[in-house]
Amino acid sequence: MIIEPRMRGFICLTAHPKGCEQNVINQINYIKAKGKIDGPKRVLVIGASTGFGLASRITSAFGSDASTIGIFFEKPAAPGKTASPGWYNTAAFEKQAHEAGLYAKSINGDAFSNEVKEKTFALIKEDLGQIDLVIYSLASPVRTDPTTGITHRSVLKPIGAPFKNKTVDFHTGNVTEISIDPCTEQDIENTVKVMGGEDWVMWMDGLKEANLLAPNALTVAYSYIGPALTEAVYRKGTIGRAKDHLEATAFTISDKLADIGGKAYVSVNKALVTQASSAIPVIPLYISLLYKVMKEEGIHEGCIEQIQRLFQDRLYSTSGIPTDDKGRVRIDDWEMREDVQAKVAVLWEEATTESLPAIGDLEGYKTDFFNLFGFKVGGINYEESVEEIVEIAGLQ
Ligand code: NAI
Known about the structure:
Layout: E1 7-8, E2 11-12, H1 17-34, E3 42-46, H2 51-64, E4 67-72, H3 85-99, E5 104-108, H4 114-128, E6 131-136, E7 142-144, E8 151-153, E9 163-169, E10 174-180, H5 185-195, H6 198-209, E11 213-223, H7 228-231, H8 238-257, E12 263-268, H9 283-297, H10 303-315, E13 329-330, H11 338-350, H12 356-359, H13 362-372
Parallel strand pairs: 3-4, 3-6, 4-5, 6-11, 11-12, 12-13
Antiparallel strand pairs: 1-2, 7-8, 9-10
The structure holds 1,4-dihydronicotinamide adenine dinucleotide.
Residues 47-53, 71-74, 86, 110-112, 137-140, 222-224, 269, 271-272, 274-277 line the site of 1,4-dihydronicotinamide adenine dinucleotide.
């Protein structure tokens, strides 16, 4: 079928298998060009199909020749209906990994459930024995607690007072004022339940109990801080509470892994266009201004550049893992540079519907957004009919 983008609100309902494949190949080529990293050999990536998780899987496999197991929640294709992008990404990743002689298997299902955990543990036991690195990179709006059966929904709201600021509809370029009402206590609890560290601990407890963690195993989850501009709705809002919990959880897990020499870290990453971040109000405007400044400075990075640097210069650097005063690994250092933030703050004041095309990188934002779904990718002929049904070779 000929596949075109079909939009509903902030999401694209279709995905292009060839475009997704090309994105994965481009990321693999980037990692290969950067050279080998003396990194992990057996890696479990939870949230492996898009964004930072996919980049972590690619970096492990093609940077360190690692065997990888990927967990994700994606939709396969049906006749006349495309799969979700993470499905096509994984099919492409596994094809490339297998061709390179690398072990790669995947599990598609709800990572929050006991079933998916048990299935993963059995697969590790059978195929890899133990794991050296666990990447925890889930971004989800809902979680059913496997112990209580209760389904929690996360919200993106400020705490205590309404949040009023500018935002952009990146499809139309319209800059408008938005006001978001503050959350309830229940909203905070729910968001922490979904995006906090509870499920991360469950994964690590299960892996350790089954003796599936290698001596000195590492686990890393991803967090975000961002600037004062987005603080009320992000870091000091409901999602920020969940990230506080995730960051505190790293210490809990490190304590639990002490006897095997294991460690848990949170890495604070840069703001990037992913399916998760495009749904957060205000962030798209911030990102389009940030991209403009960082591209002008020659320090712009996407997920793959961020994760390559995280592995090479932080997690597997020969001089140990550098952290900030709260024990976090920082790979958002270029985004948070004082000169970068000062420029973004000035542009923020100036941003209107009329000025944004010139002062911001709205085009870059849009291209990145469409790229997530395999559209607007260089070298792809979108007029050509393609097979929408694509299998993932190592799907369990
Ligand atoms: P993403 O939306 O690209 O990826 C999310 C992944 O989680 C996908 O592989 C998806 O299949 C998987 N997933 C979601 N629900 C699942 C479930 N129930 N069971 C199994 N898999 C499930 O998200 P992104 O942006 O890469 O986010 C990953 C982490 O990085 C999140 O913790 C996010 O807060 C963090 N982060 C994101 C930043 C950004 O600007 N995008 C910046 C800094 C941190």
